[in-house]
Amino acid sequence: MRTVIAGGHGKIARQLERLLADRGDTPVGLIRDPDQAGDLRAEGADAVVCDLESASVEQVAGHLEGADAAVFAAGAGPGSGAARKDTVDRGAAVLFADAAERAGVRRFLVVSAMRADEEPPPGMDPVFAAYLRAKGAADAAVRTGTGLDWTILRPGRLTDGPATGRVTLAERTGRDEVTRADVAAVLVALLDEPRTAGRTLELIGGDTPVAAAVAAAATTDGGTAAG
Fold first, then answer.
1. Residue 76 pLDDT
2. Which of 64, 105, 126, 150 lies 20 to 30 angstroms, CA to CA, from 73?
3. How far apart are CA 207 and CA 60, in angstroms?
4. pTM over 0.85
5. 3-state secondary structure of 106
6. How far is CA 136 from its chain centroid?
């Protein structure tokens, strides 16, 4: 399986690339900085330099030609202002989805954020509020503006701990933390489970093995899946 990952140098993306490469897949990471290419190669991934803030749909579609799946794991990152939350977390996600559709890549995963569908409460940090609005707008565009087989994954508070292999995955989980390593493992399992297409799922740490949690989410009609 050839999977193209936007935000290929991110912490989740690099762990995803390693997992895919280890099982014999071909991960391809899109990066802005050519100096990051060596890091991706160390994970077993191919690197393609592509700035999603300036590239055209046609250019990105060219990088997606022949792929089996696409994963949007990009973000403006810490220290960026509200404007870049819009251009990356919303604009780049929409561009990547449009490019996937143009290239004929149907399976499309999005790493989003909890509370992205809600209006941020008064008093929230304005940049974080902009981030949530951008994520919510991107998710809505993917859901309603494309014909992709999309799955939107909304992890809880991310940590850098080791993989536990056990999670809670559902349309509503409540708020808690989850390791980036477990997010990457869930993304791999979602790529393998087409029945999760059309679902928006929250993810936190839990007690259920990843494969079982994804299988349960694929067959559960709303509500809480495995925990």
1. 86
2. 126
3. 39
4. yes
5. coil
6. 13
